[in-house]
Design brief:
18-stranded antiparallel β-barrel; globular; 18 strands; mainly beta; 434 residues
């Protein structure tokens, strides 16, 4: 035993220099941790959906007038989104390419590929940056709506967190910081061209529009003041704010004023006229996180640019008369006129005046890991129709997101959600990030 102990001690003493030399030979490769000048990421999504159709609704008759008894619509959707960036010195380029695929069992198929964003940036100083190209500006503090997002496309309130396509702009950010109650001031001027093949679907062509946002961080309150002018659309001005009252309770709001807003309205006989005048839109909302990880978002949105209940009722009556004429004589003139009016604004999401939005989301209830159920409800407070969206989200597999979602539309005849083409829907989203 003594010999074995002495042998073990000798081996241990001999190993110490070896370990020391091994430690001295270790080197840190800085290239493994330094920031790379380029990045690449992507997202692939499959979204099968099933819709329960309402064959007596106005928008069903407008779309499926030649198939008046259809009850169910199956749909297969796909999405591929690729994005990448390259940064060198004070320059950076970024691009996000999006492809949407759709096929339904009414033999309709579509594919659309477009750059959501593609712009170049230069940052000659920490307080100054310039961006030129196609970009989403993301103005506004609201979750479901942003009435002050003058230079962005409108959100889809059913899915407000989805990435959106931008516009071609030239913009800058000038930022200054201070000590005292006013901590930060920034100004973001924007040049917004509208010509053939350049933002041509924005408004009046052959115009060069100017917009801007002035931001303040004042007494821990975020405040923005915005404007847009130039002829592409009527001049508009607005402001927003956001403030954390406590660490888990935030309030926000937006207000927008549009000069010479135009909309086409119908009387009971179906005669159309253009109404011009000022339009005012505002939003007020709150976000609250409880101690047990329940997130509540509540917003109220009102806009005088929307249609009154009687104006929407007259539009639904016009569709009904056009549909009756088609079924009796085959004359499509009435439905064709209704389609034109729908495209002018009657078919846009939330085309009326007053809405209440509420979303509840519970993270990992009953300690079920990676599981988040939520419930969203949107109520048209003019006609008290509603859209209710229960949802289940599972993220337990790395980079994979599974989302099961349903939608139930509640409302009678001549109400916004009651006249949609479907009464319910079920969809599954399987999205993979890489």
């Amino acid at each position: 035993m003594r010999r074995f102990g002495l042998l073990f001690l000798a081996i241990l003493l001999c190993s110490i220099p070896s370990a020391t030399r091994a430690e001295e030979s270790y080197t840190l490769d800085l290239s493994e941790i330094e920031k790379k000048p380029y990045s690449f990421a992507g997202y692939v999504e499959a979204r099968p959906a099933l819709y329960g159709l309402d064959s007596s609704s106005a928008f069903y008759r407008l779309r499926y007038f030649d198939d008046p008894k259809r009850q169910i619509l199956g749909e297969a959707n796909g999405r591929v989104r690729l994005e990448g960036s390259y940064e060198k010195s004070l320059f950076r380029v970024f691009a996000r390419l999006n492809t949407d695929l759709q096929y339904n069992d009414s033999a309709h198929a579509s594919e659309r590929t477009t750059f959501y964003e593609a712009y170049a940036s230069a940052k000659p100083a920490d307080f100054f940056k310039i961006d030129v190209g196609k970009k989403t500006l993301k103005w506004g503090k609201g979750y479901a709506w942003n009435p002050v997002a003058f230079a962005d496309r409108p959100k889809d309130p059913d899915d407000p967190e989805q990435a959106m396509e931008g516009y071609i702009v030239a913009t800058a950010d000038i930022i200054r910081s201070f000590d005292g109650p006013l901590k930060t001031v920034s100004f973001s001027p924007v040049l917004f061209p509208v010509y053939d093949h350049i933002n041509s679907n924005f408004g009046q062509n052959n115009t060069l529009n100017a917009a801007g946002r002035l931001y303040f961080l004042f007494y821990d309150t975020d405040i923005d003041v915005m404007f847009m002018t130039g002829g592409g659309r009527p001049d508009r001005y607005g402001f927003d704010f956001s403030r954390n009252l406590t660490t888990n309770f935030e309030i926000h709001g937006e207000y927008a004023w549009i000069r010479n807003n135009r909309k086409t309205v119908l009387n009971a006989a179906g005669a159309a006229r253009t109404v011009e005048g000022e339009a005012h839109s505002f939003l007020f909302g709150l976000r609250y996180l409880t101690s047990f990880d329940l997130t509540a978002i509540v917003e109220f949105y009102s806009t005088s640019a929307g249609f009154h209940r009687d104006e929407m009722k007259n539009f639904y009556s016009l569709i009904s008369r056009g549909f009756d004429a088609y079924t009796k004589t085959g004359d499509l003139a009435g439905l064709a006129r209704s389609i034109q009016l729908a495209e002018s604004g009657y078919a846009r999401p939330n085309a009326m005046r007053n809405y209440l939005y509420a979303r509840l989301s519970q993270k990992e209830p009953f300690d079920i890991l990676y599981f988040t159920p939520s419930l969203t409800c949107m109520v048209n407070t003019d006609d008290f129709s509603a859209n209710i969206l229960p949802e289940i989200l599972y993220t337990g597999i790395t980079n994979l997101e599974l989302r099961l979602r349903a939608g139930v539309l509640i409302g009678g005849r001549n109400t916004e959600f009651g006249e949609k083409q479907n009464t319910w829907r079920i969809e599954l989203r399987a999205g993979y990030y890489f």
